[in-house]
Records
---
Amino acid sequence: MFVSAVTDYAIYMLSPEGNVVSWNAGAQRFKGYTADEIIGQHFSRFYTEEDRAAGVPWRALEIAQTTGKFEAEGWRMRKDGTRFWASVVIDAIRDAGGELVGFAKITRDITEKKAAQEALRESEERFRMLVQGVTDYAIYMLSPTGLVTNWNAGARRIKGYEHDDVIGTHFSRFYTEEDRATGLPGRALQQASDQGRFEAEGWRVRKDGTRFWAHVVIDAIRNDLGHLVGFAKITRDITERRLAAQALEQAREALFQSQKLEAIGKLTGGVAHDFNNLLNVVTNGLSMLRDRARDGAELRVINAMDKAAQRGAALTQQLLSFARRQPIKPQARDINRVITSFEAVLRRGSRNTIHFDVALAPRVSQILVDTAQFETALLNLVVNARDATPDGGRITVATSEVQLGDRQVGILPAGRYVVVSVQDTGSGMPPDVVNRAVEPFFTTKEIGKGTGLGLSQVYGMVQQSGGDLEIRSTLGEGTTMSLYFPALAADCECDAAQEPVAEKVLIVDDQPDVLEVTSELFRTLGFEVFSANCGEDAVEVLRRTPDIRLLLSDVVMPGMSGIQLGHKAQEMLPHIKVILASGYANPALDRDEGSLDGFQFLPKPYRVGDLVKKLRAVGS
């Protein structure tokens, strides 16, 4: 009676041949047949036509008879022709003697369960297809120990590994060596396990060894019992976004710095202008007092006051330069020639313990620049580099030409720029000092060692020339100051291009005052002047400037003498004319130096007329 009353299961008996011999209420509810309609009928009528054609009902009885039990799921038919998904169990029934007397069959309608499973399977399949189809994100699973268990298309695109390359390997292979050394992958999994989630940004490594900046999320995956079964890991390549954010921040910082210096420039320019007016009154008043001085003591005081006023005037000129209110006379110039002709002065601005190099690019475009202000700025940079290398080191003055992107340096627009840089191997500067280095009166030097206006003048000069100043410094490793000037087009029509080409002369003397006066004398005669204060430096200038036509050198110099230099110059440049100057009547006393044959000799002291005669003699 219990079996007959069960309605959730179809429970009935089959004969050894498979005919229905009993029928309960559950069977009638599931399949729609009454007991009178089905008793004596073969149970195969409950199967689909496909299953009957395939012999499924008879194989089920054969398996149950052979093994004692048959169990399966599949489609079954109701009386009205509709289908339902059934869970079926068929047990063989035997008598005491072991003879088969029939089968007990239990059927359950699990259509809803099947539909739910199918829906879940379809949902999982759709999710799998979605994950596999995503290419902007690397989405994959990790085992509890961090081994990769699956791999989507986005992971292949971003990291470069194929599915078979990474399955079963540890995910730490995607981290940099530095991060692996510090145990970052393990800490990430531990945090995800403890807190449920880990999120961070950092460098990751592709299969080809290149790096990309990644945003990473790791979620712990737990089963219904709360046991950790693995991790879901999502990685996105945000390198472009990071670079864009950095570029925006740099642009903002450059704009802020520019606005700050502009404000300081207006203030200092106004102060310098007013102070210049005051100094004008002071210097004129001192000039009048000097004429009325009654004794030497008064004159000494007036002279001391006048020197102080002149120093104040020099300071105001530097302030005006920073404020870009200093009148300039820009002309198109080959900056390599300007530096070469000024090289001797730059070397004097250094010291013997420092190795001074000049590395000029073979060809650079002309720039518009005020030569005098440029030379002052360059000397300021060399002196600063010297002060930053008190224990010796290296200073290098170099030129190059670069193509910049928009705002790549400060707020300069995109274009070609000529770069003049002064690099030292000195003490360097921390970032906070770099940020304030060009401000007027800001200095890290001891009191009385500097006004803090040197870099201000450099900044004002390059800004007024349409360029910008870039400072790169590492504490303890040195500093590079780079001046960027807009490069002129090759076909630029300008006054300098129309000027006649001046003949080049190299003047060599170990006495700075003599070198400076002689150089200025040759400039007044229309020469393009290059200078050096020793024979070795002169050889370097000749090597870099092979079109120099005339050499004027002192004879007696430390190291290489003028006679030795003259012979060396003629070996390098057979066309060069040589004039040697000396205070000795016969400077060629040392036989090792060679003779004066082929040279013009100019005895010291000489006048302009004497010099002109020698120039005529050599055809200059």
---
Amino acid sequence: MNRVGERYFSQVVRNGHHVRPDDIARFASLGIRVLRYPVLWEQLAPHGLAQADWSWCARLAALREAGITPIAGLVHHGSGPRHTSLVAEDFAPGLAAYAGALAERCPWLRAFTPVNEPLTTARFSTLYGLWYPHARSDALFVRAVLNQCRATVLAMAAIRRHIPDAQLIQTDDLGKHAGTAPHGVLAEFYDARRWLAWDLLCGEVGRTHPLWRYLRRSGLSEDEILWFRANPCPPDIIGINYYITSERWLDHRVGRYPRRYAGQVDGRPLADVESVRVAEAPPPSLLARLREAWDRYRIPLAVTEAHLGGHREDQLRWLWEVWRAAEAARAEGIAVRAVTAWSLLGAYDWNSLVTQDKGYYEPGPFDSRSTPPRETAVAAMLRELARPQAPRHPLLQGEGWWRRPTRFMQRGRGQPLPLSNAHPDEAGVQPVLITGATGTLGQAFARICQRRNIAYRLVRRQELDIADPASVRAALDAWRPWALINASGYVRVDEAERDPERCFRENALGPATLAQACAARGVQLLTFSSDLVFSGRAQSPYVESDSVGPINIYGRSKAEAEARVLDHLPEALIVRSSAFFGPWDRYNFVIQSLRTLAAGEPLFVPRDLTVSPTYVPDLVDACLDLLIDGAAGIWHLTNGVAVTWAELAQQAARRGRVDPSRLEPVAAAACRFVAPRPAFSALHSERAILLPPLSDALGRFVQAIRQHPIEN
């Protein structure tokens, strides 16, 4: 619960956990034995202890009843209630009073983290100015570190008056720095600084400490520093929060990197870059960090945060890599007690370090955008690790982005990815089988599978005729996929009225045939439907449970496909979408509209047909995540805004800085469609909104086509 200006950002409010006590049963179902849980000072006692609301403590009791030992977190990237701050004199005694009051009410608690990541919080709040009190000062930085560590010592003393055997689990980030020779001294300073909070708590900061002169020069008195030697409070467990971007490379050659990395230190150019993005930097290594911490303190360790923002396969690969590093450390005799799958309900707006409220969400083991929270593939992996057994997801066979050569930064515009089939030669690697090799959607899946390092095989009709059972069986036996994505089908809505037999063969018989074969072989299936399964008589966007009522042949073929697929394979994933646009083909409506308007030609577009546009890259990424999670049933995936075709063209023109004056909104009847169209076929979802809003998608679309124009 961190503060930016006068706003508090509470993750438990944003992810809905504050009104969902049944989440505790979900957590327990994963096999978790210990859980870091928020009992936040700012949340329970924002106006002082006299007015504290202790009802939240019932959650701690519920955890205990569920067989989970809670680690009570009292301040997490916070600065306390409004009357104090990280640099205020009353911060430490105030937190101690709160901690003592909590311990008195819950004397059965045994583990506490009074202040999460004191060094990291101080950096963000008093060196970088991102969080309250928004300072950029070494003097306030060292004051904030000292204040938080003093608060931890006093809080544990207050807790132990009620719970003598209470444990301190002290967390912080442990990223290492390296760099070019001109910044060698700076890298050494940063590396010494990362230990400061733990060193203070262990009573190891004296006059010979490498940071002594820095602390004194920054305004701390000898008495303040040496107080920790007289009042040591060593952690019972050191919690290492480790992220792939924690390791940093300091480079004086700023021109090698994107402009956002360029800066200065002491008047010299500096690029502070993630080491993983630099070929000459030492590769990040959690095992090396565990060795460092063990050698320094000889205190038991835990990996207390192991989250990775990104796509699901890399979340799985990262957690598996962290787990194996912890196992390797234990094999060396290092006392590693736990790995924490931070965070269970995901996180909001961490791509801006929680300085903005844009709703950017990264799921964890549960995706809290669904009601109730939906389990992801990470949850299944946690159950396997808790048993314990090796996780089995096929995508663990691939390397995460932090291990692939494509991670390195290069100047200039990159080349488009080739669309060749990627089928690994390694024995036992299962691909995703993708139909529709010549279509927009099939090629988009191939492109994004390649980008995400998901083994795939993109097949043509000659290799797999989806409506021919023998052809389907042969393809599945030859490629042994773990999943099949049906991106093929009959897409010409008007021509379907004249050729219903072919339309039904490709759109209904084909998916049903795939479903039968996938059911027999235990293969996951993703297939696509359309907004045209609806009649258009609704006054608000359709959701997944609304009754279908197609008014044209194409819509009927899709509605029949849905029913037949789910009859053969209830575990199938069916995605309804509409009004595709994307940066990789020249035929979609938005591309054609921009070209027509840019050429100064009139553009006649229906003003009375309402749809919900879908940006193809967003659609494909979300579909792959759902497929990896084993999601089933019907999902509506669009960029979430109901607009007419004319409004879509106008918005795209504004985003693309194209003159919209030649846009001519007309009645649909004037377009002389052969197939009737529903007047209103916009889609909404009662399961979860997974795609960004249309304005965001259009902005990225315009940027993409400017960087890589499509040839006429």
---
Amino acid sequence: MRRYSISTWLAVALFAIIAPFSLFLWFLAAQLQSNEAESVERRTLRSAQSIARAVEPVINSMMTTVNLLASTEELANGDLRTFHRRSQFALRETGQFVIVVDEAGNQILNTRVDYGAALGTIADTAGFNRAMENGRPVVSNFFMGKTSGKWVFNVLKPIEVSAISNARMLVTTMNADDLVGAVAELPLPDGWTAAIIDGDGNMMVPESPISIAMTSPDILPGEIRTEDISNLPFITRFEGPEEQILAYAPIRGTPWNAVIAGPFASAQAPILKTWRILIAGTLVLLGVCVIVIYAASKLIQTEVRGIARMAQGLGAGRIVPPIQTRIRELDLIARALSNASYDRSQKEEQLTMVMRELAHRTKNLISVVLAMVRQSSKKAKTPQELVATTADRIAGLGRSIDLLTASEWKAITMRDLVENHLSTFGTIGTTIVLDGPEFYLGSDAVQNLGMAIHELATNASKYGALSVDSGKVEIRWAEQQSETGERLELRWQETGGPPVTPPDQTSFGTQILDRHLSAALNGQTEINYHPAGLIWILNAPVATLNRAVLA
């Protein structure tokens, strides 16, 4: 299998990134050219719809106003002066004005002027006639108002004939330039026009954010006339020397249309320019990446060689100091290698000590096992009984060794030792009660005390408290202060079991509980064969019990 330098791998990785990315950019540019036309059409249509939706609330507000005013008590009672005053006050901030017209089209009042001022006929005769014919509210086209002197539009609502008043038509009117906000704030490409075209072909085009102009329809593309717009699709493209696009949206409740028109190329220009800049910038960025990756690969090669030299020193068994690199992660590796070289040296020294200790302990264990076999053979009546007794005692010793192995032959708590040996004989906390402070035992104490606890538990399960359901064993320990120093008293007490009788002869278990444990732990033991339950007590120096095997 061929090996390659880190520069080669980084170059391959860069190519693997650049190749599909470049292909994607070229594919994206091709798709952009084909999809941008549809995007422009959608944006243009949405812009026209946006104008229409912005104008409709204004018309709806005027419709609401004329409906509310038509039902006022003052108008029904012919109290036009009060009607003029209240309407003028209510609409002072809305840009709307109210006109009351008689059946002949003469203005009775106009809130643009004071009540009683001389007024002529309504300027919007076409809207007046259409409302009278339809008998319901209508929206007029744009027209030049006589009173305001501006381009305005009306919402006209016929009202019922009254014997008290000659009012026949209620009109809300508004200046056309109040609609400029719906059109002028729309951002458009260069050369584009947004307008509102009414049913008479009047085209309202914003000149500024506060003013409008009523222009001729020559801004429309091709030969399109204003009256033809409603017959076109909502969006249309016109071929020619300069391709044009037009979109319109009807303004609901009116004979008006919102129109957007302009050259197609100018709508595409910003996004195409953006994409060209993006592609160019991406290529430049990729070039910079090539340079940076090349420099980074050289740097990494140099630092990795230093790490390799440290690893070689570690393999040779030397303690290697960490090198200083310019890469944080490699610094971590260098420190880890240096720590590993030191730990290896320490572990080798510790392993030598452990091997010596293991040899010593193995000899001791062999001596204990031989003693078990000799004593068991004296009492065993059959080879099978000898095997069973010896195996059980060796298994108990093995439990203590398992605990020490799990803790790396360090100190074990008294509770852990007792629970480990008694968990198979009863239920901790129910039939077996433990009570005592946290007390750590050294490895020698764990092995010797473990054998004693195992012997007690075995006897209790065969003949004592744990042999019946009502039996209970309490194991309590506590530290005491004496003239010779701190000592620990461990008490084993059985209750609820069969009556206890002293044995006829001394068994190996009794020797472990008495002479062996006293000698091994430099303490005193006491066995009381009380009829109510066996009591065994150990009193030994704390220093002997928690002496550690290894430093």
